[in-house]
Amino acid sequence: MKETYDFLKKCGVFYLATVDGDKPRVRPFGAINIFEDKLYFQTGKIKNVSKQLNCNPNVEICGFVDGKWIRVEGTLINDERIEAKEDMLNHNPELKNMYNANDDNTQVLYLKDATSTIYSFTEAPVIYRF
What are the structural domains of the chain? Predict the structure, then answer.
């Protein structure tokens, strides 16, 4: 999991894909955190991505940096605990302009049953499961 976190953090911006009915939806993300040995992401409950995750929590994430790319697949699980929200905001302080751990909008989710694969054109893929 740490390798996946480090890779996505180095990307700066990575892309999260959800399902909206029978259509794929992809958007840029940047906030990521490790809390209680789980990989967390953050969004707002008012956003379409949150609504899509409520209907179907299966996601795929993709990022590219330094000639390598990562694909992460898994299920995002909502965590309503204030501690998880505070930790996310403390590790991603740029979010504090828009979100507060005590508001009704901040949503943090952790990745469950994940497979992460790092690819390049010159090396064999490296696979992590967590």
Answer: 2-129 (2.30.110.10)
